[in-house]
C-alpha cells in the first residue's frame, strides 16, 4: 500500500474520495472526539457561542429550522446533546428498525426567561443516520 512512506495510487484515490465526502470528514472528526470519552452520553454547554458536535454534515438544522422561544420570542441556543452511546446503555441492538440516532440536540431560551414556569417546552433536533451508511 505504501512505498517509501507515500500511499500508492489506489490508496491515494481512496483517501481523496474519503476526504471529499463531507459526511465522512464529519464522521471521522466525531469519532475522534468521542473516543476521548467513549462512555459519555450527554454533552452540556450553556455558552451561546458553542456549537454541538455533529456526527454528520447532513441533517443539521439551519437557523430558520430553530424556532424562537415560545414564551419570550427570544432566540434559542444549544444547551446539551444526547449522544448515540446512550443506546448501548439502553441495551439497543444494532438491528434494522431499532431505535437509533446520530445525536439529539436540545435548544433552550438564550435569556432563561419566565422563571415562574417549572417545566418549559424546549426544542430538540434529532439527527438521524442516513439509511445508506453502515456503521460497525
UniProtKB/TrEMBL annotation:
Q: Name one GO cellular component term.
A: cytoplasm
The protein's name: Programmed cell death protein 2 C-terminal domain-containing protein
Stretches of the chain forming a coiled coil according to its record: none
Per the database record, which ranges form the Programmed cell death protein 2 C-terminal domain? 25-127
Which organism does this sequence originate in? Aegilops tauschii subsp. strangulata
Amino acid at each position: 500500500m505504501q512505498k517509501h512512506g507515500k500511499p500508492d495510487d489506489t490508496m491515494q484515490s481512496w483517501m481523496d474520495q474519503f476526504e471529499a465526502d463531507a459526511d465522512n470528514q464529519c464522521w471521522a472528526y466525531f469519532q475522534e472526539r468521542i473516543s476521548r470519552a467513549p462512555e459519555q452520553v450527554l454533552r452540556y454547554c450553556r455558552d451561546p457561542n458553542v456549537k454541538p458536535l455533529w456526527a454528520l454534515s447532513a441533517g443539521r438544522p439551519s437557523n430558520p429550522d430553530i424556532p424562537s422561544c415560545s414564551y419570550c420570542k427570544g432566540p434559542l441556543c444549544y444547551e446539551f446533546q444526547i449522544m448515540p452511546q446512550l443506546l448501548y446503555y439502553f441495551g439497543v441492538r444494532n438491528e434494522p428498525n431499532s431505535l437509533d440516532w446520530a445525536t439529539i440536540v436540545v435548544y433552550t431560551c438564550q435569556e432563561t426567561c419566565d422563571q415562574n414556569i417549572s417545566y418549559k417546552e424546549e426544542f430538540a433536533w434529532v439527527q438521524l443516520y442516513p439509511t445508506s451508511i453502515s456503521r460497525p
